[in-house]
């Protein structure tokens, strides 16, 4: 049956121009064309096969990743791909590798933390991959608490060097039962990186200046062996088969390792030849700049991971049929569903399925647009920093931290929901969903634990509330706090379900909820004589206020997007429906907060649910076209359930036949373990 498109009927139902939507999703025609070309290049090259990943033993898996990364680099250089094309190629290869950390963190750290002179030395080497780097910040005992790091970099004026040292238990106040407090977790560190950006406490003349970044060579450029004083290795298997085990997350101890003074990254602060510590005229927090950059990237990546899962679950939900009757005979479910040509009900037509799936589809679009906006914000703050305007740095930190937390939590939960939406078959590795979940879920932890990051947003919110009335007008994403008096008094004016389609009404509802939750936290905090104690005591409420603020940002950026000129037949109308599903499903999920803050009434909450159901019906015929708009190849999706042609069952059957366990009809181990058992039972049962 090759060539038959089992989803053709679904595709014919679309009420909008899919090609135009593809461009909206990609961000521009240019980005679409690059992504389309590179994704096909990868999909058509057998060297990038990835369906065997869950079955490979770790060593083989890792070597395979090294092979793919080297081959990708060969293509990048031979085809003279641009930076944009090269990064798309790595993205579509879709395999976590040391290159993610080299390009995603090491290079940005060099760019952001080094002086021009240092950059001119290190960047050309890194760009040509003549050195490979990683980002070594987290220690066994300290991840979230960066200020608590214990590795030291002590300046030795005699030799003009820093001595980098991981403290041992004996020299540490810590009472862990491990012998060494080493660096632990960095990706690419375990087996590959030649260099690392190591974060350590800078000590000059006995004085501790806090955490700074240093470039440390780890391995010999001749034979890849660790340099003297360096002990390095992989930290072991992680969650899931295949998944993130293609990455060599590493452990590192540094025993009085000496590096030249000019390998301290000196953009933010410097140590002179005499050992004098000098701080540039920039905020110390710029040392954390790489994290702001990567968090912004992670938000953009969330929409990719979630859209992948949603594409699989949506296509499969249209293919999968449950209940109804094959021959038009008595129905086992309500006649309401008797629409499909076979008489069997497509599971996508169940309202419960739509209620679980469509908000995730909407979230994928919402995260795409907020990711675009966050990229703009990051570019803007970077340009300002270049001219010593630091005014928007706290907002950029709060936005990147908060949105990283919000989008990764929703995406990880969403992928797991998509697995359940695919029923039993979702649990098969060939659905692609178990591995996608296992690869994605650490995003809730790395680059800042999601709760720790929300607490940073909460601090920013409390600071903003405390400044209300001081004459300092809040701007940007926090501008609504400038209208707090109105927002505390106002009441929702919705009278009919359709009123929930009014953008200004929706925006005010989300602003009022966020403002009221923040103000309530601030009022409760003011009852504590010690603010830090109050912050700790109220931290669960503060996290909820931070989530409300971040959801407001996502909703407002989606609504802003809809204000733009969006070409293509029906595209804008569909996006309006998708946006409506996004905010109304949030309103429904957090109804308690909207009601408790008294902005809306129970009747208005019920009208919101009515409108949400109406939007599900609007989106239903367009669901397949909406996921086709992601333009994912079958290779990238890596899922039989999500394959473009919907020909799921024969593919599942063929894949099962190819499982190594089916290489022989009688399994290995039969003669040792099954036969004797069965024989013994045969004797005792006298059969
Ligand atoms: C399939 C493969 C994966 C693919 C992923 C896709 C991603 C797309 C590509 C991305 C590229 C590369 C791939 C990356 C893969 C992921 C690798 C993960 C790498 C890591 O995990 S690296 C380690 C990251 N570690 C952390 O994030 C630690 C978290 N902790 C912190 O950030 C901070 O220490 C803190 C919790 C914020 C500190 O809190 P504390 O209150 O103690 O703060 P300080 O006293 O230090 O500072 C207070 C002051 O500073 C402000 N501030 C804090 N952070 C920042 C910042 N980053 N920028 C600006 N300002 C900051 C804070 O607000 C305070 O200000 P105030 O005094 O109140 O005015
Ligand atoms: C797959 C993966 C890749 C990684 N890659 C790198 C890398 O390349 N380089 C690198 O340097 N690091 C890396 N890391 C480390 C990562 O950045 C840290 O694990 C992360 O920052 C969380 O820190 P932690 O492990 O110390 O968690 P902890 O802080 O120990 O968190 C444990 C629990 O305590 C809670 N908690 C902690 N502090 C607070 C608080 N103040 N208030 C309330 N609750 C709190 C957290 O919410 C969490 O529930 C990686 C981690 C993973 C899982």
UniProtKB/TrEMBL annotation:
Domain Acyl-coenzyme A oxidase N-terminal: 17-132
Location of the protein in the cell: Peroxisome
Coiled-coil residues: none
Positions with a binding annotation for FAD: 138, 187
Domain Acyl-CoA oxidase C-terminal: 502-679
A GO term, aspect molecular function: acyl-CoA oxidase activity
Cofactor: FAD
A Pfam family it matches: ACOX_C_alpha1
Domain of life: Eukaryota
GO biological processes: fatty acid beta-oxidation using acyl-CoA oxidase; lipid homeostasis; long-chain fatty acid metabolic process
An example Gene Ontology CC term for this record: peroxisome
Catalytic residues, chain numbering: 447
Residue ranges of domain Acyl-CoA oxidase C-alpha1 in the record: 288-462
Alphabetized UniProt keyword annotations: FAD, Fatty acid metabolism, Flavoprotein, Lipid metabolism, Oxidoreductase, Peroxisome
Protein family per UniProt: Belongs to the acyl-CoA oxidase family.
Protein name: Acyl-coenzyme A oxidase
Record organism: Salvia splendens
Native organism taxonomy: Eukaryota, Viridiplantae, Streptophyta, Embryophyta, Tracheophyta
